[in-house]
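One record is set out below.
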Amino acid sequence: MKKSLLTAIFTIIAACTVYSQTTISGTILKPSGLPAQNINVTLVGTYDGASTDEKGFFTFETEETGEFDLELEGTGFVSQIITITIPIESPLEITIEEATELDAVVFGAGTMKAVGNTNQTVMSSLDIVTTAGSDGDIIAAMQTLPGTNNVSEDGRLFIRGGEGDETSIFIDRLRVFQPYSQTAPNTPARGRYSPFLFKGINFSTGGYDAPFGQALSGILALETQDFPTENSIDLGFMSLGVSGAFNKVWEKDALSASLAYYNLWPAFKLLNTRDDWRRAPEGYSGETVYRHQFKKGLYKSYAALEYSRMDMSYNDINQINPVRFSMDNTNFYWNNSYVHNFSKKLEGFIGFSIANADTNINQSADEFKKNEFGLNVKAEFDWKLNSKHNFRFGSEFVGRTNENQDVLQNTTSEITENLFAAYAEYTWYFIKRWGIKAGVRSEHSDFVDEWNVSPRVSLAYKPSKDHNLSIFYGEYFQSPMSEIGYYNPADFMKSKQYLLNYFYQKEKQIVRVELYQKDYEDLVRNDGNFNYTQNGNGYARGIDVFWRNRGSHIKNMEYWVSYSYIDTKRLYKDFPVEAQPSFVANHNLSVVGKYWIQEWRSQIGFTYQFGSGRPYTNPNTNGFLSEKTKTFNTINLSWAYLIDQQKILYISFSNPMGFKNVNGYNYSYTPNDNGIYDRMALKPSMDRFFFIGFFWTISENKERNQLDTL
């Protein structure tokens, strides 16, 4: 009896619930009468809505009644709103206007979509890993884009007259504190992270948005892949080591993991090196990426652990015997992020990253130990009111501690900074083909003991579907924490940036031209005796040009050309006068080509890079940084051969022509008997380099391979 009664009650409740729901359905068509796919249909003011399928059909249920606005939005279509009365008697049939001239403007000043799916993407993930000479390094591939200075002995990103420390790197919106591998003197560092991890790479040479800070010059923002498509195993056997990776996919979870070991001993044995290597660079690394799909959100957790070591001796003109240098480094990075879709219009983000690096260096008779710890916590909301208005606001905390120990001198120094930031940004497409983006960021550092306020504004105009113009003004701040020994800063270092950008895209052609002016204020200066002031200044101005063709001239041939001109001077550090820094070349050129030969099942890669001479100081003449090195030239070649669909042979040659590049000069501290200061050219450890690898993929999809990870 009780069971029958309960059953009846539940039946009545269910019936009432069904009765209270109203179905809204319909079909959305293009003006031609064809179905319009992937149109988001939303009941304004509610979470109710759906998207159209391949037939243009949509359907959803709502408990609302009365008069409501129904908003229609979709890529390539003009957003529109229609008014309906609920309950609705019959399915709707709506015609939506196509945006035939792509009226949506793009805020392109300063930023290049290096990897992504937008119409402003200038490179793909395949481009990055198959660019000859990059050898799978994201940083090396970025150095073929305009706005960068190829500082071959360093390897970091130097942007528009800024030092490597003025560029910050982020993964899933969170800061990476030690993005580069540790290396020996006069040997370039590499980026730590594999390009196949990322579905999006935004490279900003200036004018980046309010959610990012603490970078005077630019940023590299990386976005990890969401879900792998299938279970797979990837194996690599290389001249420099071995690697292995796997993907495991469940219904709502996915796990990726990889292990790698590298050792440059084989290359050093076959090629001549200028340095004496007791232990060639050697390293072990492991990475894991876990994802979980919630009903309205996605959680990602990425962890990476790396250990590297080396031992060598190099020549120094001021030392009778070669200087011994050995180093070992352990680096850990953990990144967690969660994106939640509260509705089709409101998205929330929360995440944190933790990094810790321990480095031990033995140089000459001294030993140095360094520990770097970083924590970044961030929360952000993105609120899209409609197709014309968008708000983004958030806050973050950055904590850093650097501890340095000189074992011989028995001294230890520690610098700690806690930085809080809040930001807001508003985008408004106020007239057809016009848009404005305005943002502000404010930060407080207990190291500087001061607040800053950083306004940023960009205006964009799209005169036609192929052309886009944008201008930008912004202010950027950076803590002087990285300036060793500077314990009592007076202020944040500051740069003001002015940008004018033109972007053209038609079919397989991309042209991007940008003029810029960057003014520096409050840079750190010292007199060489650890006496610091903060009244340094400087400027950088120039033009960047990028041209890419995706096979419209020669079938199966893609290429791009990057050219940058910069005029820059600074009065900072120990500079006695305003001068062009030694890491800046006035002219930089990159030409990258890739050609697929179907009969050979091969892709041939070619990269040429040129840099004009860089300044150096010659104590035998008057003037500071008044002379220049010879020009920098290098040609790199690569060949990827598809043995079968899942087996690839890859060969890369760096500088096979053997160009004798010079990075600068070291001079003796005292003159010789003739009153001349002797010098020694600073050259790479090797003029040439090579890489050979065999890569094998085992997966359910027999068409899948590792060509996009080479």
In short: The two ends are 71 Å apart (CA to CA).
